User: What shape does this take?
Amino acid sequence: MGAFPKNFLWGGATAANQLEGGVREGGKGLSVPDVMTGGTKTSPRHVTDGILGQYHYPSHEAVDFYHHYKEDIALYGEMGFRCFRMSVNWTRLFPRGDEAEPNPQGLAFYRSVFAECRKYGIEPLVTISHYELPYYLAKEYGGWANRKLIAFFLKYCETLFREFKGLVHYWLTFNEINILQMGTYGNLMGGGILPPGEDTAVGVLPGLDESWDDEQRRYTALHHQLVASARAVKMAHEADADNKVGCMLLSRLSYPYTCRPEDVLKAQKVMQTANYYCGDVHVRGAYPAFAGRLWKEKGIVIPVAPGDPEILREGTVDFVSFSYYSSSTATDDPTVPVANGNMMRGQANPYLEQSQWGWTIDPKGLRYLLNEFYGRWQIPLMIVENGLGAEDVVEEDGSIHDEYRIAYMREHIEEMARAIEDGVELMGYTVWGCTDLVSAGTGEMAKRYGLVYVDKDNAGQGTLKRSKKDSFFWYQKVIESNGEDLG
Ligand code: BG6
Assistant: This one.
């Protein structure tokens, strides 16, 4: 018998703002990513005050899942997916975010998407908030720094749990909630905290103006989200005893750059701050011991309202989900160069290779992290994002030979199997961007993760035609053999 349990949730993962499009359809309102322009590996995205004529906004059409969802889900069915991670775009249900009643067209759309999944025996895993705060809440309320957002979010959650009862059993509250611990994208995508200007360059490139960042405001917003998440967990359980709710972390594996104790302590601090600050609140129901030191060092005060500690205690999650793409190292030696990585940067690792976007590739790190997380939290884990962003070449006959992506996935799945043998309880694996979609970091199409290719380029041109890559057929075999056939 193989390592993977019989009911292992194999599948793929997406987010509405990167996949769906239909920005003006079905009564949808604008979300924060709808005012973010396209960028590339070398040019930043911009966040603008409303929509400016001179720019291309990639979320507006994305890859048009809004009109292609039947075809896309049929392809997932063909691959044998048991799970499809997607997000509901908050602004399809509440276009401004503070309405009293949801938009019926939005409800009908998602009901139809979930029903389509069920047709193929695919379990939807729904991220409630994947960087998709209503723009109105960002603009008029100042985003999550405003405690009023908790109530708007809970209204939205209550609608989801009521309307999709029986259709959805697996939920994630906030995508990569810990992104709020970092500057630009933490503010923007995590917190819906907008820069003051009309047109601001933002993104993952070094050297951008971050003077509008305010740590006190960010950590306040994060506290509000942690409270909102805990209340949503409790609400989901009360709405349906079959609901399982997870948190979602941007995992950060940081090795000491050398065995100097200074580097070991630095790496430990990175791991504590990036993973355990939020993870412990979600799983254990309280901030960890080191949080006090962190707040003191940063000179910030968390606005804990009466009742918040009880809310956090009562709203602990059923499982921990996370994204894992790469690892980094930590040192207090400033001469060691910084490497790119998924939103959070660290120093490069001289023993490991990097992707075309400079992300360190580290399959063994996944086994290490799974052991770390399970050892600390002892509740089921799920990898809800992993994959390789790469440029693909379409051959003349239309085929796409993405053996680099297959190799990446194979090595990570092998390490997952080893972690399960180590005793880790792993529920599932959803590969990121199973259908090519817009990159969150750079806002481009050229960085492709998909097993299904979509004909669309960085300028927004293309037929939107879907084609199966070699990885499509490979993953189909993996799922069919429950992780045994990785050939
Ligand atoms: C995660 C996000 O941080 O990484 C996704 O949850 C994102 O939304 C993914 O797309 C990959 O990052 P990128 O920048 O390559 O799209």
